[in-house]
Amino acid sequence: MEFQRQTGSLMGTRMWLTLVRMRRLRHDPRMLPDQRSARRRAAVLAALSVCWLACGAVQSLAQDAVSYRLSFPQREHRLMNVEVTLPNLPAGPLQLRMSRSSPGRYAMHEFAKNVLDVTVSDEQGQPLPVTRPNPHEWDVAQHGTTVRVSYRIFGDRVDGTYLAVDSSHAHINMPAALMWARGLDDRAVELRFERPHGTEWRVATQLFPTSDPLVFTAPNLQYLMDSPAEFGTFDIRTFTVQDGGRTPEFRFALHHRGDGAELDGFVRDVQKIVREERGVFGEFARYDNNTYTFIADYLPWANGDGMEHRNSTVITSGQSIRTSHLDLLGTVAHEFFHSWNVERIRPASLEPFNLEDENISGELWLAEGFTSYYEPLVTTRAGLAGVREFAQEMGDAVNAVLTSPGRLVRSAEEMSRQAAFVDAATATDRTNFDTTFISYYTWGQALGLGLDLTLRTRSSGRITLDDYMRALWQRHGKPGGRAPGYVDKPYTMNDLKRALAEVSGDAAFAADFFARFIQGRDVVDYATLLRSAGLVLRPLPGSGPYVGTVRLDGTSGGVRVASATSPGSPLFDAGIDRDDVIVALGGVPVTSEGELRRLVAQRKPGDELPVVFERRGDRVTSSIRLVLDPRREVVPAEDAGQTLTAAQKQFRNAWLASQVR
Ligand SMILES: [Zn+2]
Questions:
Q1: How far is the CA of 592 from the centre of ligand 1 (A)?
Q2: For the whole model, what pTM was predicted?
Q3: Are 346 and 1 in contact (CB under 8 A)?
């Protein structure tokens, strides 16, 4: 999923700031060079037959499979042509659908909106009558055993959710692009990519390869929809890592404007992350096809994103390896961690994924939040970042949870259930989420830190969050699914509680931790916990008077408050909220943000000042009582003028040193 970080800020010495980073991951096997692929293909076909038999399918792929042909005669106009053949249809109405959501995304996305020129015909090409019961569906009441559908679809957004077609590539998220038929979920699928004339486009995808490098298969609809594809010219690097008796292959396919040497250096660090994350779980997930594929598009016109899939990830960014090496690696770490946590250690609320509606889950604080905790932890353990960077990221998360008024409104579990409204959701009406919502990425990241430090502290370092993640892996991830694309033992909130009771050996502790910090709104004692590792939670340097966390716009005749004010903040208590224009403070006219900031900075916490503002045409006089800036940061003790004790050094090392065995 995407990664969002919230950082509060203050007016006074600093103005408000919010960082939103979008991340997602995904993995996919790309087509293989012919010489190497024969053995693998045989193994894959064998695995597929086993799966289809297990699924009760008796027809051969050729007879029963739904087939798609994708071609790009108008790629410069961002259009893809799709032809679908649905054979051996049962009698009764055929319901053709575009998806409304995409695996890993929880908000509604109306993918049908970009569909053009839909034609439905029989085997001989005779048009069949179609009705439209809703904007996402094409119903065919009367049809024979085979139906053909063709349409064009527009797409121009390079990220983990949508379709992007241009003269350089087709970047395809399947739910955004492919129409499918209700009731055929267990049918195998064949997908043929038509290479545009004069190009050398190749395919990177976790779809199963065939003897034709442009033809792929999926064993069922869930797997198809979870399998994005990059069709274009890209650089690719592969590496293997021994994992017990297995040797999975990792592929990094990159569409970018940099050079091969940059990619080589980057993939060396990707390998470090892959090995370090294996250290957390003790083994890799069992990738279908024994391959995990990173599909990356680092292009100036790409949107920052990362989307996880079972055996692949899509990572997109407008940045380049040259300018943003470590930041891009962070997304790699996040998305690859998802190959265990969420793709296989999967909440029951998301299994199977509903393509027709929003998906609600109260467990995203773990699925996304713990993944966000491990992202900087793993890059630190791999030696790619230092303790200072790690402390800063933890400080951002802890500060957001400590200072955001959202915590007064909902628990981490309840924030997770808000995903449908915030996960790349679009709306034209205003919300007050600035003051009522804390991202489950951020809160979950802080919870991961809190639980890890709590487990380590109460067990004198014998039990850690890694043990907890491994226990979840053994119970819920490793058992696998009845077919690629499914998870047979997804978890519930009670399963998570039970696992913590067993790992910690203390059911009362586990019950209390969930009741207070996950399903309740308490916050662990971060200052005490962090001290064990020689990290200091402290006020921001130079903290002074504070009026609240808001965005401000300079405007003619005053300063407009451009975001909701936080309950309990001086601005809020003075009756000021969004769109109010502050015109005077302490009897001094205010005409710019800078002036307002200076006027606040000249005062002391506790001072009470008259404030004049305009509210929807009325002039209002009130008073505002400044408080001390409540924001916090986390720094290594040695940066706070303290000396690390031997115990702190040992604690920190056990936590942040490499776990590669
Ligand atoms: Zn994620």
A1: 39
A2: 0.91
A3: no
